[in-house]
Amino acid sequence: MKGIEVSQAYFAEYGMPMLQGQFPDVLPHVAAGLFGSGSECFGYDDGLSRDHDFDPGFILLLPGEDVVDRKLEFALERAYAALPAEFMGVKRPKLAPVGGARRGVVRMGDFLADKTGSPAGELTVSQWLAVPSYALAEAVNGAVFYDGSGEFTRVRERLARYPGDIRRKKLAGHLLLAAQAGQYNYPRCLGHGETAAAQLAVIAFVQSAMEAVFLLNNMYQPFYKWRFRAMRALPKLSILAELFEYLITTDNDGQLAQDKAEVIEGIAADLIEELDAQGLTNANCDDLEKHAYSVNDSIADGNIRNLHILAGV
After folding, report:
1. Structural domain tally of the chain?
2. Which residues pair with 91 in a beta bridge?
3. Can you say whether the dihedral through the CA atoms of 119, 120, 121, 123 is positive or negative?
4. Of the candidates 114, 135, 159, which is a domain's last residue?
5. pLDDT tens for residues 75-88?
6. Is 59 a domain residue?
7. What average pLDDT is seen over the chain?
8. Disulfide check for 90: which of 41, 56, 170, 232 has CB 3.0–4.6 Å away?
């Protein structure tokens, strides 16, 4: 059974009865679920995942102190700590993981500030451009088991996707970096006999091209540990995951170098085809850099369009 299923069963058996029995007045104001950091919040956990930071518990989100004061927060923390320490063969750890506890009683504003920089989950243009995609993914992943007021659900819906112009700005930047690393610098590094630098160019190409794939799917790219797994499940361009893996796991000698250069051009062509299909570019060529500027030119908001093309990367 996946961690998220264990957590939901634990909440149903112990969490909700605790709230209903001990805190009926608080119940309409809280939200509970499993989301944030950890493979189980994405549904990627397996047997190995249980060797650290794995917990059958749940997150209990509280509103501001004007609704639930510190005294009541402390009482909720004590009640949560008193819940059974083991469930379905999974034990709650005695020590908090590195970076702090991932379960338990948390203020909603603190959770959102940690993931997005905004306690209310209302991002400015600068924040949308600067917050890492993996952090936004952690703000909206997992599952909400209960939401008394519906506020947390509304915030998650608002954060679920990049706004249109932000998506285009970030896409333009990553396309430009992919073009420079893969189509331009990779063959030049090989020409100089710098095979290690050539591999760095390949890695830079893969990183930016993968981000572009997630943006073309209008989805956030998760933390690098789960990037390939997430990409293989995307509805568009998921087949490129195997080509990206080939590029970063092979050498740059002889025929391999030529083959990799052709693979890079093929990936560029696939990205351009999808850009055309979504009406994101007016360029008519096989140069990703020109398409990057075309995507940037299509941004409706002049203030965002006129920012440096790399403002979102």
Report:
1. 2
2. 86
3. negative
4. 159
5. 999 999 999 988 88
6. yes
7. 94
8. 56
